[in-house]
Amino acid sequence: LAIHNVVIVGGGFGGTKAALILARDHHFNVTLIHDHPDFRYYPTMYQTAVGVTKSVASIPLEEIFDKLPITLVNDSMSDLDRHAQLVKTTSGKSIHYDALILALGVQTNYFGIKGLPEYSFGIKTIDDAEKLKEHLHTQLIDDKKPDLNYVIVGGGPTGIELAGVLPSYVRRISKHHGIKKPNIHVDLVEAAPRLVPRSPKDISRRLTRHLKSIGVKLYLKTSVQAETVDALMINNKPIRSHTVIWTAGMTNHPFFATHGFQLSTRGKVRVDQYMQAEPGIYVIGDNADSPYSGMAQTAIYDADFVASNIKLIAGGSDPEPYNAKKPIYVFAAGTHWSAVQWGPVHIFGRVGSWLRKLSDLVGYHDYEPWKLATKRLLAEEDSEEVCPICGTSDNNQSAQ
Ligand SMILES: Cc1cc2nc3c(=O)[nH]c(=O)nc-3n(C[C@H](O)[C@H](O)[C@H](O)COP(=O)(O)OP(=O)(O)OC[C@H]3O[C@@H](n4cnc5c(N)ncnc54)[C@H](O)[C@@H]3O)c2cc1C
Questions:
Q1: Mind listing the pLDDT tens digit for each residue in 127-184?
Q2: Which of 179, 211, 360, 386 has its CA 20 to 30 A from that of 72?
Q3: Is the pTM of this model over 0.70?
Q4: Are 336 and 353 in contact (CB under 8 A)?
């Protein structure tokens, strides 16, 4: 076989899926280089900021791979020697590949806006989400009242998800900390004239209506100018806030720009019809300049596609060309309300939220057996009842 050693870098949606598929074929020697020990299930990351157990968004890779023969290297790729076909890591390892799959994901982009890196919160990692949750509690304990404004920046899926659950969560923990009838302001700031601007208008309209109905104030066509320790500057006016959550910007992983990859105008890696950036180097998921890049479903689809082609090539057959697949878009705006964009069919409300649950179940099952996936889905209902700061539980509080 010409391809024996497959090295995958990035244990997210694309990389982990490719590793699972290829490791089931005994012809391949699969190595996954990943810079942290867990797989992050991003679609439910926002839930961990509002009291849901972190197991819904973080799964140890060792658990996912179980007994599969995958060499898991907990390290970070720092360099690539194309001539010698070696991946180099920050700890000094050199790992040889016959085929290389890169799935490094994207990084937060603050567009150079002053103050955001220092003062804003994010929900890209479990640590980010926990930091936000701790801040929400600390602020209520210290000030004995809610923040003047809880401001979410970004009217995309992540901003909407958070806006959908934040008002009820802040109300719940206010009660927990003995604050009666809290006056809570949750603001959602978006630069475009409507929410989810790349989706059809009726989706934006229904999301807007629903968020307003739960008390979220929308600032559309509004760009953020700067953030200070206690305010966010928009339209040359400050919104007083100590809680600004930035969900508005992502940029491609810097590795590609610094290592001679060809980039498209939107900064994604140009790939051919086999998702190769160069012969034998495949780039998938968020990193690739493909029509629906930026979605977990696309990263999974790409992983499946590239793994199948590597198998075909290894078996002496010709690879298949890529056919982009349109994802189903699900925008959760609260525990019991979602908007679903399934081609021409648009579904709203409670039925939408059931479909969202179903998509999480299928999403978990992409990485673990049905039984574990179901258990993880049910954990979405488990709210942590203990305050991360003062350690009291909801029950204690209600008894006070
Ligand atoms: C908060 C949030 C919510 C989302 N919700 C949805 C949703 O509901 N539905 C949906 O379809 N999509 C959603 N997405 C998008 C989806 O998560 C991404 O499209 C998907 O994760 C892309 O998969 P990937 O494999 O390309 O990258 P990732 O899943 O990001 O994986 C890349 C991994 O590579 C690791 N890595 C980076 N650099 C290195 C290095 N040098 N060496 C080793 N490892 C490295 C990173 O730590 C990361 O874990 C969401 C994204 C976010 C941030």
A1: 999 999 999 999 998 888 888 899 999 999 999 999 999 999 999 999 888 888 888 9
A2: 360
A3: yes
A4: yes
Contact between 187 and 239 (Cβ < 8 Å): yes
Residue 167 CA neighbour count, 13 Å, CB half: 21
The alpha-helical segments, DSSP class H, found in 123-200 are 126-143, 157-176
Reference 43, options 18, 12, 76; nearest CA is 12
Pocket, ligand 1, Cβ cutoff 6 A: 9-15, 33-36, 40, 42-43, 45, 76-77, 103-105, 123-124, 157-158, 253, 255, 285-287, 294-297, 299
Of 213, 215, 200, the closest CA to residue 170 belongs to 215
Q: How far is 250 from 294, CA to CA, in rounded Å? A: 10
Of 251, 248, 265, which is closest to residue 195 (Cα–Cα)?
A: 248
Query: How do beta strands 231-234 and 237-240 pair?
Result: antiparallel
| Cα torsion angle, 378, 379, 381, 382, sign | positive
Q: How far, in Å, from the CA of 12 to the mean position of ligand 1?
A: 5
Which residue, among 361, 326, 364, 321, has the nearest Cα to 344 in the 3D structure?
Answer: 326
User: How do residues 322-369 score in pLDDT, each as one tens digit?
Assistant: 999 999 999 999 989 999 999 999 999 999 999 999 999 999 999 999
Q: In what order do the strands lie in the sheet with 216-219?
A: 216-219, 186-189, 150-153, 243-246
Provide the token pair at 357. Answer: 């649950």
Pocket test for ligand 1, best of 36, 40, 104, 153 (most atoms within 8 A of CB): 104
With b for 16 or more beta-carbon neighbours within 10 A and e for fewer, the 281-317 pattern comes to bbbbbbbbbbeebbbbbbbbbbbbbbbebbbebbeee
> Atom 19 in ligand 1: which residue has the minimum CA distance?
295
